[in-house]
Amino acid sequence: MNPWERIQGELRKALSPQNYSTWIEPARYGHADGGVLFVSVPNRTFRDFIAQNYGPVVEQSLRAAAPEMDRIEFVDASATTRKAAASRGAAAKYDGKSDQPSFDFDSPLALLNPRYSFDQFIVGPSNQFAHAAAVAVANSPSKAYNPLFLWGGVGMGKTHLLQAIAHGIASKRRLRLCYVNCNQFVHEMINSIKYDKMISFHDKYRNVDALLVDDIQFVSNKERTQEEFFHTFNALYESQKQIVFTSDRHPRDIPHLEDRLRSRMEWGLAVDIQPPDLETKVAILLRKADAQGVPLAEDVAMMMASKIHGNVRELEGALTRLLAWSSLTGGEINLGTAQQLLKGTLQSQERRTTIEAIQQVVADEFRLKPTDLKAKDNSRKIVYPRQVAMYLCRELVGASLPEIGRAFGGKHHTTVLHSVDKIQEGRKSEKELNRLILKLTDSLR
Ligand code: ADP
Ligand code: MG
Q1: Does the global pTM surpass 0.70?
Q2: Ligand 1 pocket test: which of 158, 160, 248 has the largest number of ligand atoms within 8 Å of its C-beta?
Q3: Which range has highest mean pLDDT (112-116, 243-247, 324-328)?
């Protein structure tokens, strides 16, 4: 497999199937030269779209799947053809470089998505508090809340807010800023140990004015990384530097986390982001379409927001599909064309299963009654099926922990979390359990 194919493998996991097949699949491996990977894309629209929208995720995938490469250059295949044609004509001059943007991964701002600014963030009741805290930190780093800990489910805008803080800090002052995804931190640390470069690693992370770490929940289980974070945290905190974390859960719910690190995460302010309500979803869609320069009718936005129940990222995936179709064919996006284009997405939303259906299927599998799963009974023959059912509710319905707790006879959300984690972990090593989950999932679709 060439490096680009490996990177594609990572991207496939990170992006929705739609976005992946629209924008990434058509990109082809060109060649590699001195740490630069040349990837050819069909035309300028692709190149710009990838650069504008997928810079950070491409970078992360590069680090994960092809660490031997320094950067990627996306080459517009149609321009290369023009260039070849032009170079045959005597007078034609073509400076191939000026036309090809590439990602400079060494600059901290290069890792940021320019669209993830406060301007582009829609505020609603579900994210108001998190947004206000983020703005306060961007305006007065190290003075407002330190550390700031933003947490919430997938696709709720945590990364967006974190990068908005970074843009905010960077635009106002000449502060040294470090924005890093937790996995990238782990990866760099391992490499630094391997190549005996821990000193420069420490320098990089301990000599900044603001350290922003995305998805800190990934430190779970990683002892050495936790130790490194602990010392980094202390060094920064003592010299009054700003620290911001995001996580998919509250510090108290991150498993296998050292107490001393957990307590530091809770020193400042922890705020959660809840799923957006209908109006906020509509506003997000309208703003996103507008940012791409395509008008979106309100009835179309309303239809999408009310029928797509997943997170904002799923909503965006659907919008991207509409915009891609309209930009490639010149067609008009209206209620009819939108419904047609989103048929697959809408159908799978309708087929989305319910907590009740899961309880029924799991109860049948274990020869129990659904009410058994909700009982106060903690015998092994009930607890295990209940854990499986709770796990499926989280995976297939995307229900919140408290919601699942209530549906199972008022269990505490930490019990739900423990069950979900237990099954998730178990699946990795127990083949039988994994097969059971797949079978149940299948029968629910
Ligand atoms: P998370 O990091 O919480 O998983 P992201 O920050 O990656 O979520 O958000 C997913 C997508 O949804 C991003 O493209 C982001 O811009 C968008 N998004 C989420 N919430 C909002 C919002 N309130 N306003 C505008 N865009 C949003
Ligand atoms: Mg994120």
Answers
A1: no
A2: 160
A3: 243-247
